[in-house]
Design brief:
The protein has about 325 residues and is an alpha/beta fold. Helix content is about 40%, strand content about 20%. A five-stranded parallel β-sheet has the order 10-9-11-1-12, with helices on both faces. It has a four-stranded parallel β-sheet with strand order 3-2-4-5, sandwiched between helices. It is flat, with a radius of gyration of 21 Å.
Length: about 325
């Protein structure tokens, strides 16, 4: 096929920021206005390099560890959650700590603590080293076993006679997680499940939106950072269905050869990617003569989370 064949770009909907990311980014922005720079942030507030650079330009300082923060300074904890030891060290340093953990991640932490208190052997389905997984495992390190695949589920050894329960990372592939749960269920038929699915609504909705549009596209581009779990899962969903897909930070990472043989390109963005990046990619296609750019809607989202209680208290004038 000839170069420049692209006639249409379909925009997945929903895409981009979820309520947890909106809340986390706004938390840092509000903290900067309230306390002034510098405001320290433990790790990336969300997994997107553009967002991090923008906040750095406003005075946010991203650190690897809470012990890197000067005593008494303001610290924002990222959306991915942390283990109890982080809170303890922050308190020792008398930090003004603002917890921007996504409420859906907090829900998983609470479940893990309750399962551990009730004596369950806990299986955590997730990716080793991901910040969310590290934080969840820190809630009950002696009770939690991490499983990343069906093969690991089949090989998992748990204490004989102990009741089993599972929790999951919130940003996993819905289909792959279901396969792992099925494998665990075959081995542990009475395994207890979360009352509500741990994979967050935004991750599920974005995967569903991609699946709905795959029959109509020749190529899928996913805007998101390489360390964004939910963005990588979107690429995997497309490839599993036989559709070529690539993860890009922004329009500068588009390889011209990808689009040479594509008449219709699908475009989506991970839950940590701002809509401004979608606009930039659309402009890239417009600059190459594409005029038909339209939304392919599948699910409507209206979820909103309140800002962290520490911030709301600080912003409320004393009576």
């Amino acid at each position: 096929m000839a170069a420049g064949l692209v006639k249409r770009v379909l925009l997945a909907s929903p895409r981009g920021y979820c309520a947890g990311v909106e809340r986390a980014v706004e938390t840092v922005e509000r903290a900067l206005r309230l306390y002034g720079p510098p405001v320290y942030v433990r790790r990336q507030i969300v997994h997107n390099a553009h967002v991090v650079r923008e906040l750095e330009s406003r005075g946010a300082v991203f650190v690897a560890d809470e012990t890197d923060v000067p005593k008494g300074a303001t610290l924002v904890l990222s959306a991915h959650g942390v283990s109890p030891s982080v809170y303890a060290r922050a308190e020792e340093r008398r930090l003004n700590t603002i917890d921007a953990t996504c409420p859906l991640v907090t829900k998983v932490h609470v479940q893990a603590r309750r399962y551990a208190a009730d004596g369950y052997a806990i299986v955590l389905i997730g990716h080793a080293g991901h910040e969310e997984v590290v934080g969840t495992m820190g809630e009950a390190p002696r009770s939690i076993s991490l499983v990343q695949s069906v093969e690991e589920a089949e090989a998992l050894e748990l204490p004989e006679g102990q009741e089993v329960a599972y929790v999951t990372q919130t940003t996993l592939s819905v289909d792959e997680t279901a396969e792992i749960v099925s494998a665990l269920r075959r081995r542990f038929p009475h395994m207890r499940a979360p009352q509500r699915d741990d994979i967050c609504y935004a991750t599920s909705n974005r995967q569903w939106a991609v699946k709905q549009m795959l029959d109509d596209v020749d190529l899928l581009l996913v805007i998101g950072s390489a360390n964004s779990s939910n963005s990588n899962r979107l690429v995997e969903v497309a490839r599993a269905a036989g559709v070529e897909a690539h993860l890009i930070e922004d329009e500068t990472e588009i390889d011209e050869t990808w689009v040479d043989a594509a008449e219709t390109v699908g475009l989506t963005s991970g839950a940590s990617a701002p809509e401004s990046l979608v606009v930039r990619v659309c402009d890239w296609f417009r600059g190459r003569g594409v005029r038909e750019i339209e939304t392919f809607a599948s699910v409507y989202e209206d979820v909103v989370f309140k800002l962290p209680v520490e911030l709301r208290r600080a912003e409320t004038p004393a009576a």
